[in-house]
Write a structure and sequence with these properties.
Length: about 300
């Protein structure tokens, strides 16, 4: 059988690292007929990673175990998005055997960093590779969007504009790298609650839809410095998040006092992002924030980074 190579044996396990996301621009419009809000957002994948491993198991079904930060607070059954993602891939590929999924969490849980969506995106990729299922881009996007509004971006990474409810993506060619200090808090804000608060504030005439993403898109494409980016950060959910958890205001204020270029609530919160000049500034600010107290944990991150498909 010279000149021929044996087909590669199927892999027994596939491991995928998946980054967290932030929204340097998060414009929130009115609630639509389906209950979702129209978004004009810019996503950036940042260097805080969860790791998802998918292993073959002969019995059907999904067995999920979770270790790492906040693992004991997360469901391991069918309500977990990564569990759902594995089931969707099995259904799509008509797979009769099962999978053992292991999540190693480093992305802070329920922090507005899309940790659950990232795990779901990684589970889609890992299971498709494990079972050697060819899923076209459009189909993978459809499965991801069915799992959650942020899941399609979590597949892609980098920088992208998100329209619709966040799932309609246009890639942005960002030139450069920006550094962030990520400060989590002891509190939680369920995403739907934060959207409801946006609606309530709008009904009182507070806030408007920041639907123009062009200035920040151009800034990423031209590789602006952090000083300039600081002036372009937008989050229409920030007032709602601060209204629900007023302690966020003092955390944001504290970071600015310690020298951050900007303080920015991450998504629907309650995590706060501080934009800094570079890695040295990030370490110095992180040290000062830890000494000051007020944050549950403080992480360093930079972005954009590649997603699990790139
Ligand atoms: O899409 P996902 O399941 O992540 O959304 C969680 C919840 O956040 C939705 O049920 C909805 O209440 C709210 N949401 C929204 N508008 C969006 C995205 C999410 O109102 N664009």
């Amino acid at each position: 059988m010279s000149g021929q190579t044996a087909p590669a044996a199927p892999e027994a396990a596939v491991t995928v690292d998946v980054p967290a996301k932030i929204n340097p621009h998060l414009g929130v419009g009115d609630a639509r007929a389906d209950g979702y809000h129209a978004l004009a957002t810019v996503y950036q994948a940042v260097s805080v990673y969860d790791t998802v491993t998918a292993e073959r198991r002969s019995e059907p079904g999904v067995e999920l175990t979770i270790i790492g930060e906040g693992a004991d607070t997360l469901p391991t059954g069918e309500s977990n998005l990564a569990h759902k993602a594995a089931q969707l891939v099995a259904l799509y590929g008509e797979i009769e055997t099962g999978v053992r999924l292991r999540l190693h969490k480093r992305i802070p849980v329920a922090g507005g960093l899309a940790g659950g969506s990232a795990d779901a995106a990684a589970a889609l990729v890992a299971c498709a590779r494990l079972w050697e299922i060819e899923i076209g881009d459009a189909e993978l996007h459809r499965l991801a969007a069915g799992l959650g509004s942020d899941v399609p971006f979590c597949l892609k990474g980098g920088v992208a504009v998100g329209a619709g409810r966040g799932e309609e993506l246009t890639r942005v060619d960002a030139r450069g790298s920006w550094h962030w200090v990520v400060a989590t808090t002891d509190t939680q804000i369920p995403t739907p609650e934060c959207y409801e608060e946006v609606d309530r504030l709008r009904a009182e005439g507070i806030g408007r839809f920041s639907d123009d993403v062009e200035p920040i898109v151009k800034a990423f494409e031209s590789g602006v410095g952090a000083d300039d980016l600081a002036r372009l950060l937008v989050n229409d959910m920030e007032a709602a998040a601060v209204s629900l958890r007023p302690q966020l205001a003092s955390l944001m204020h504290g970071g600015l006092e310690e020298g951050a270029l900007a303080a920015h609530v991450s998504g629907s919160g309650p995590t706060v992002l501080f934009l800094v000049e570079g890695s040295k500034h990030a370490s110095a600010l992180a040290r000062r924030l830890r000494m000051r107290g007020g944050a549950r944990s403080v992480h360093l991150a930079h972005g954009p980074v590649a997603g699990p498909l790139e």
